[in-house]
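For the sake of clarity, the format in which proteins appear in this thesis is described at this point. The record quoted next illustrates the convention:

___
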Amino acid sequence: MFIRDITELEKNSIEILKKVDVDRGAYSILGQKMKTYLLYISDVNIYGANILKQDALSVGADFAVPKNAIRCESEKVDGVLIATYKQLQILSKKELAQPYGLKEIAKELKKFLKAFKYQEFQPKIMGVLNINQDSFFPNSRTNIPQLLERAEEMIGDGADILDIGAVSSRPFSKSIPEEEELERVRPAIDILFRHGIHEKVELSIDSYSPKVIDYALSNGFNIVNDITGLLNDEVAKIVAKHNAKVVIMHMQGTPETMQIDPKYSDVTKEVYYFFQERIEKAKRFGIDEANIILDIGIGFGKTLQHNIELLQSLKTFATFGRPLLVGVSRKSMIDKIFPTPVEERLPGTLALHQKALENGASILRVHDVKEHKQMVEIWKAFYKV
């Protein structure tokens, strides 16, 4: 059983209530009735589906099921639950007493209710600094003499986090030996630490190499941006040892192979179960769940349609209760929608990142900090409570 949110964030209902001068004490009650959610629920027991249909109708909601569901010809079916927040609250309690897997659905609904209740209005901006000369976007590349100036500029432009990497993960790129990566990035880590940059912003190391990660976390860094999603047990141990934060990203394959005809039976479901498994692994190794950040991995083993579906379904992953990082900055996804060179993809980047914010993202990984800071502040103005 798997529940997917297919609702896009609507305008803040509280502002509407303020406009008509509703009593402040009624904001919560009325707000729960003003927004309709669409939840796609897969693999529901056929008898449970028919019960849920009737229970939904009894509270003014509905559960759309296949036209032959009433004849119980299939063992399991998919359906769409159409309900307000208040109706979901009632159903999440009502189905706890029902058989045929409805108790599990009730538990998942409670997770959605928790995710819906909280909207992140203080998203963070993660600025990208690449200490290598083969990153797909030339303007993101820097060298050691320029590093401090670039870092200070990003901080001045509004970066909350700086993400430092020494190895490109663009499609078809090859990995390099761990010692070579450490040799590249060690001077950058030392400079940032020596000048106290970690006291101004959070520092993230974009790596999946244990030695590199251990060195960074020992010298002012507190986030590990792991594109392999804690595949390596040693990385999990090091993150736990330093009580650091970790970005668990989903990737199908490796950077060298990931864009060779990626396929999924259901990309949202597979990424969801991947996060579920890796979060459990992180906890087994002693990583505090509060230190986990999730990244759906736009462009990492996904087609354009996979990327769009994941962005549309982003709030599905909010049920894990962890911050969601999205990085679409200047990626080829934009070129596939509107053919344009990487140097001219800022408008497309801003459009996609705004959609990500609306659907629940709380961290944006970007090359253009100043422009994103402006976009975020304007976006927030439309959603202030």
